[in-house]
């Protein structure tokens, strides 16, 4: 029997962890001489106070859904993919090549092509560390981190060299042609007399991200492969005994993980910037780790956590705009969420478990007493 | 390549290898005791910031160094509590510490100095300055040995010599003291150590604390000796490279010296594109040179390590029998 009811495990623990992280962040804000309550009000106002704010919040959330799913699926196979950042950078390269060099007749086809390009390039960047882990035993955490650095250098090399249009001074590709423009929320939801989401970058990719959540859920809990991935994650030796090949599971789960991280690029590169620039990923690959931990590696949890981080990210940008609190505060909050939901999980869990256990024992004693009477 | 150029290259090798060496030995203590530490990077970064900030405020680099070690120890304590006391996932704890350091250093630096997340430039006594060893000037004109002594051995900062001294000290502690024996045992078979009546938790906390002190030295070196001040994300993956060097060195102190010198040499080479062009006859893009140490880390991890067997109980929290 579990020590705790299921709702406490999936809802209460993440919420308590989040509250702890929020309290510590408030202390940080206090320490640098700002008012945390005012900061929170600014964040709420800026991130969800208008359709414009929502347009940014959901745009960031779309990025984090992809990178969160990427980390989550690797977690199920007990792989720690810290390379989401580099895989998303490479995904951006895939999208850029697809958009620049293939003449697309319509945005829907371009979206399909872009998704394929992004997934392919992202997966390629994850497959190499996966192979090295499976076959050569090199630690996936270190290799994926190294691949983040290598991806940044590679993109830098291409953007000041081969991909830069002639005569341009900026390290970026040229603008993608018009037919690859994805419908933004403003295009989709505005009516003749009211403009919604004006100028916000949220676009149709948000729905692709939701589809990805559903697809990952189906894969993990409704297919044979998903079962094998979970079995491998629970016990490598048991999985081996059941005839599951570790190499196969490591390779497949990391390929899917890399593809998902890469697919983030259809949102930020194709949907928002419409060209490939340096540092387009902006740390979203790393936020995926916090999102996956917070969402308990479940696609629905990842979705909710991604919305939360979208809110934090947009709210943090507003803070940086109106107060002296720098944007890096979001990195601190992200670190605290990872710390409390990931590493200090037992600190929250142990007292809660003993609380529920003692309550259950008390209830049992009571029912025994009434039975004796 | 003439002798002078070679000596210059080796000289910057030593300077660039020093933070790697300190971080690598830091990781060695932690991992030998069975605690994986991805957080070397973050601890270095935190130490780099606080040492530079305090050195600037007080004008004394040694006070700065102490503050840097303090910052690193604080993060070590978090890692210890998370991975030893609460038996959490050590990789995740390390990652959290890296982000915590990356975020906090910039947030605090911005509100403290208001220079976009940097500390002001350090000068004079607020920095570690090169030490000229005795007779270096007098012996300079002796052929071959003179320049080697003057360029390569003399003229480094105090922390470089401390780092080099730490290698034999670590070797001695690990293989010739009771503490070292127990430390190695707790990373291989904590149950046996526990049965012998020695505290597993105590030993592991001691190892994590030593790791914190050494990371503090490494970080302070970055900001107050190698550079003159703290800049955002200045550790630039050195903590991870140190981990790769540790695996390459198979968790042993003397090979760690060799491995970090190799990585230091690669970094020194990446700073001299002109040299590469002269020796190889073609030019290499600087962006690719920047990636060189990272690529070689992957290559070395994948192929040239041979069989690297990590401490057996590494990464596993110890649950006492009841």
From TrEMBL, chain A:
The answer to whether keyword Methyltransferase applies is: no
Q: Which domain of life is it from?
A: Bacteria
In Swiss-Prot or TrEMBL terms, this protein is called: Nucleoside ABC transporter membrane protein
Q: What is its main location?
A: membrane
Q: Which organism is it from?
A: Loktanella salsilacus
Show the GO cellular component annotation of the record: plasma membrane
Output the InterPro entries linked to this UniProt entry. ABC_transp_permease (IPR001851)
For whether the record's keyword set contains Transcription, the answer is no
From TrEMBL, chain B:
Q: Where is the protein found, in the record's own terms? A: Cell membrane
- Annotated InterPro entries: ABC_transp_permease
Q: Where would you find the membrane-spanning parts of this chain?
A: 65-84, 91-113, 158-177, 198-223, 254-271, 291-309
**Pfam families this protein is in?**
BPD_transp_2
Bilayer topology term: Multi-pass membrane protein
GO cellular component, as recorded: plasma membrane
The answer to whether keyword Nucleus applies is no
Can you name this protein?
A: Nucleoside ABC transporter membrane protein
Organism this protein belongs to: Loktanella salsilacus
